[in-house]
Design brief:
Blueprint lengths: L5 E6 L2 E6 L14 H17 L8 E4 L4 H16 L5 E7 L8 H11 L2 E6 L5 H12 L6 H4 L2 H9 L4 E3 L4 H5 L5 H7 L3 H12 L7 H9 L5 H10 L11 H6 L2 H5 L11 H10 L2 H16 L3 E3 L5 H9 L2 H4 L7 H6 L6 H4 L8 H13 L7 H4 L5 H13 L8 H17 L12
Parallel strand pairs: 3-4, 3-6, 4-5, 6-7
Antiparallel strand pairs: 1-2
Length: 432
C-alpha cells in the first residue's frame, strides 16, 4: 500500500519509496477570456478520456445522470462517431421512488447519445453479510455501503464483458469549487465581492448556510495557535469520544489528526481546501476500495477526472471559474454545453444517498454489533459513547446524521477485527 503519487522499488539493498509527482502550489493559469479557460478544459478533458480507452474494445460508463459521468459518456460517444474508438455502454444504478433517484437525467443523457444502456434498480441487501464477506475476502475493512450498493451494477458490467468502466470520480473534488474562497476574499479586503458572492450563493441549493458561511469567512484566517486555544477553551477535542484514551495515546491520534502537510505552501485558503479534500485519507481509502471491488468483478475502473493534467489545471485557474453566481462547477457547465442535455447542465444540488449508510448501520445494530464490540475488548473503542451516538442518530432526525459515518467506521473496523482475531461473526440476514 502506497500513498498517492508514490512508487516503490526493490533491490538487494531493500525497499525504496519515492514520490514522483506533486502539485505546484504556486502555479497559476490566467486567461483574458472565459472562452480560453473553456477551450483549455475541453482539450485536456478529451485527452484524459481518450487515453483511458486504451486496451479495450468494450467500455462501460457508470452513468449517474450528474455532470461528471454525463460529460464522460458524451466524450466517449464523440470519439466513437469520429474515430475508430469503442462506443460506450451506459450502466446506471437507480433508486425508484426516492428523492435521490436520477432516472430522469439518466434517460435524457441516454436519449442524447444513444448508447447501449443498462439500468439496475436498487434492491434490498444483506448489509451484515456483505460486510462480513468483504472483510474476509480482502482481510481489510469492508467497502462503504454506497459503494457496495453498486455491486449489482458491477455484476452487469462483468456479465456484458466490459473490461474497463469509466466513472465521474474526481469531478466534485477538483472542479466543484470551495466556499472557503470567502476567507480569501475577506483576507484580501474585497468586502463588496465577498458580500456579492455570499448573497448569490445563498439563493441556491448548494449554499452552506449562514452560520457555516460566517465560519468559513473568519475561522481559516485565525492563526493555528489561536485556533487550538479556542478549541481548548470550548473543550472541543478533535479526538472522537468513541476512541479510548489509551488507544488514542498509543497511536498519537491527536497529533496526527491535527497535522497539516508542511510541504505545501498556499497563497489562499480555497486551494488548500480543494487539495486537502482531493488527497485526504478518506479519498485515498475510497479509491482503494473502488479499485479492489472492480477487480473482484473482473474489470478495471478508470477515472478521467483524476488525470494529473486536469488536476493541475483545476488547481491553477482562478477560483471564480469554478463557482460563479451561486453555480458550482461553473466552468464545467460552460465548457461542456455541447456534451450535456440542458436539464443536466443546469441541475443544481446533489442527491443524498445516505439512506444506504443508514440502512447498513441499522442492520448492524439489529444484529447486535453495538452490544458486544470486539474493538472495545481490544481497548480501541469506548462502547458507551458508541451506543449514545447510535441512539442520537436514530432519535434526532437530520441532526443525528452527523454520527452516521463515524458509526459506519466502527462497524467496518469491527468486521475486520473479528476476521483478524478469529472472533465469531455477527448474525447474518439483517436485511433492509
Amino acid at each position: 500500500r502506497l500513498p498517492p503519487a508514490h512508487a516503490i522499488s526493490a533491490d538487494a539493498r531493500g525497499l525504496t519509496r519515492t514520490r514522483y509527482w506533486r502539485i505546484d502550489p504556486a502555479h497559476r493559469i490566467r486567461y483574458a477570456r472565459d472562452a480560453d479557460y473553456e477551450a483549455h478544459l475541453r482539450e485536456i478533458f478529451a485527452e484524459a478520456v481518450r487515453c483511458r480507452l486504451r486496451g479495450t474494445r468494450r467500455v462501460a460508463v457508470m452513468l449517474s445522470g450528474g455532470l461528471d459521468s454525463s460529460c464522460i459518456l458524451g466524450q466517449v460517444q464523440t470519439f466513437a462517431e469520429a474515430l475508430d474508438s469503442p462506443a460506450a455502454e451506459a450502466f446506471s444504478l437507480t433508486c425508484p421512488g426516492r428523492a435521490c433517484d436520477e432516472s430522469r437525467f439518466v434517460d435524457e443523457v441516454v436519449g442524447r447519445w444513444r448508447p447501449v444502456a443498462h439500468v439496475c434498480p436498487e434492491r434490498p441487501l444483506d448489509w451484515v453479510a456483505i460486510a462480513q464477506q468483504e472483510a474476509s475476502r480482502y482481510l481489510d475493512v469492508p467497502t462503504y455501503p454506497n459503494s457496495s450498493a453498486a455491486d449489482p451494477m458491477r455484476v452487469l458490467i462483468r456479465d456484458h464483458r466490459c473490461g474497463v468502466a469509466l466513472s465521474g470520480v474526481g469531478g466534485d473534488e477538483w472542479f466543484r469549487g470551495s466556499a472557503s474562497v470567502y476567507a480569501d476574499l475577506m483576507r484580501g479586503g474585497r468586502l463588496a465581492a465577498l458580500g456579492r458572492r455570499v448573497w448569490q450563493d445563498s439563493s441556491g441549493p448548494d449554499f452552506v448556510g449562514w452560520r457555516a458561511a460566517a465560519r468559513l469567512t473568519t475561522w481559516p484566517l485565525i492563526p493555528q495557535p489561536m485556533q487550538r486555544f479556542v478549541k481548548a477553551a470550548l473543550r472541543r477535542d478533535i479526538t472522537p469520544a468513541s476512541v479510548s484514551a489509551g488507544f488514542a495515546g498509543e497511536t498519537a491520534l491527536r497529533r496526527r489528526l491535527g497535522r497539516l502537510d508542511r510541504d505545501w505552501r498556499f497563497a489562499d485558503v480555497a486551494r488548500r481546501e480543494i487539495l486537502c479534500e482531493a488527497t485526504s485519507g478518506e479519498a485515498v481509502r475510497a479509491l482503494e476500495q473502488i479499485d479492489r471491488s472492480a477487480g473482484w468483478f473482473g474489470f478495471e475502473e478508470r477515472h478521467p477526472f483524476l488525470d494529473r493534467r486536469l488536476a493541475e489545471f483545476a488547481f491553477a485557474i482562478p477560483p471564480e471559474q469554478h463557482w460563479r453566481g451561486g453555480w458550482p462547477k461553473s466552468l464545467m457547465r460552460r465548457a461542456f454545453r455541447h456534451l450535456l442535455p440542458v436539464s443536466v447542465a443546469t441541475r443544481r444540488g446533489r442527491p443524498d444517498y445516505s439512506h444506504w449508510v443508514i440502512d447498513a448501520v441499522q442492520a448492524h445494530a439489529r444484529a447486535g454489533l453495538f452490544e458486544r464490540l470486539i474493538t472495545a475488548d481490544l481497548g480501541w473503542v469506548e462502547p458507551r459513547p458508541v451506543r449514545r451516538a447510535y441512539d442520537e442518530m436514530i432519535g434526532s432526525g437530520r441532526r443525528g446524521l452527523k454520527w452516521l459515518w463515524p458509526l459506519w467506521a466502527i462497524c467496518a473496523v469491527e468486521h475486520w477485527a473479528r476476521v483478524v482475531f478469529d472472533a465469531p461473526p455477527l448474525a447474518a440476514h439483517a436485511t433492509r
